[in-house]
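Rotation project, supervised by the postdoc (A.L.). Task for the rotation student: set up a whole-complex structure prediction and record inputs and outputs verbatim in this book. Inputs entered:
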Amino acid sequence: MSKCTQCIIKRFNSLHKLNHDELENFSEHKTSLIIKKGENLMTEGHTINGLYCIKDGKCKLTKLNTNGKEQIIKFVKGGDILGHRSILSDEPVGLNVTALEDMHVCFIPKGDILDMIRQNSQFSLSLMKNISHQLNEANTSISQMAQKPVKDRLAETLLHLENIFGTDKEGYIDVILTREEIANTIGTATESAIRLLSNLKKDQVIDLSGKKIKITNKNALNNISEGY
Amino acid sequence: MSKCTQCIIKRFNSLHKLNHDELENFSEHKTSLIIKKGENLMTEGHTINGLYCIKDGKCKLTKLNTNGKEQIIKFVKGGDILGHRSILSDEPVGLNVTALEDMHVCFIPKGDILDMIRQNSQFSLSLMKNISHQLNEANTSISQMAQKPVKDRLAETLLHLENIFGTDKEGYIDVILTREEIANTIGTATESAIRLLSNLKKDQVIDLSGKKIKITNKNALNNISEGY
DNA sequence: GTATAAATATGACAAATATCATTAAATTTT
DNA sequence: AAAATTTAATGATATTTGTCATATTTATAC
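Outputs recorded:
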């Protein structure tokens, strides 16, 4: 099995605060796994006893509402860690994590993480910083969901997706989502999302090619996201 | 000035993880202040260099949207701490904190907090637990804002307010909010909030007396909040 | 490669929610 | 206590968004 000490993905997350020996220790206890597209890495309400470090791949974090609708809360890609919120708060997992493409993931047991928090305050602070930042993002999201109309939220979401996943050689946002998933991100009906995407295309703000989306007028999209 | 060692409010937050000497140290550097009703303890975008421990009083945490509307993200009362998210993530404050009634608050400088995180891992873990829990709540909120209709969100909010603030001797929820503030909590127009409150009263689910609200049929309200 | 299913697109209509206007009630100021 | 201001309430109407129906395109299975 590959070693944490040699893994370059850790530089994107709190694990970069660990020294060589600490990483060796993690390496000894870690397991690595592959999550196929469409499979769940975690499931809402379940307990997990460790932290996942995403080596490669993209996933969506969702919540199932009482009405049966899926709400996408967040998108995560390689370099991020998952599951720390649950083990730190001693609560069950709050979100489903579903692979949008095949993922390579490493699992580090809860005990090792908690030990490391006690002995390495830099690691501890880095985790806090990560969660604190996420909390701020979530609060912003609440405000936007509550106050912005669907069109603005769609514009916002497209800009956000490009920020997270970047673009391919042709300039298309580098993630493949169904129209339903886009609708579940902005919190609207699938038909509404489709209609608004069509409108944005007609207005030459974006370009559509199958499921691929290219932002052709970022300025305009920015304005729309702010209600102009 | 009163001492942290003798303050009973700390048992509700992470400060209860500190021993006598550690509290003495905090006491020496802390300042205490009074925030009058309507005044801000923190302002969105500003930097703070410390943590606030709410000794007494109620406040709302809000965000000002690009369209100029205020969104209430959260209600906080005595016993809670504020500002730790900002100092832990090294980001400006994300929310306005406005007193709903006169508040007594203690301020502990950032340096002391960070030192304590490094030396007391129980304190550190307790802070993480607090923020992790808040993140989970925020994620739930996103989902509800995005997917639930206004009526359901109002029901949810009323139940939530009773949970946080409890009831007075006559059974009314123990916080005074304007209709506009209720609207800003659930993310709707003030008129819509007023109308829906009137309907709930007509349906004998709640009782209204001026700004005071009493839940008279919690079961029904629970059902409404889940879409039945 | 054809059949089958799933996803996308679009129109017609219904429901939810916002906006504007006006009145009534409560609160604050003088 | 009266006047002025703010807040609450309610009707009328406009706008936004959701739902249902159906066609078309795309993906998947055989």
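Student's summary: The longest strand of chain B covers residues 70-77.
Supervisor addendum: Strands of chain B lie at 31-35, 40-42, 50-56, 58-64, 70-77, 81-82, 96-99, 103-109, 206-209, 212-215.
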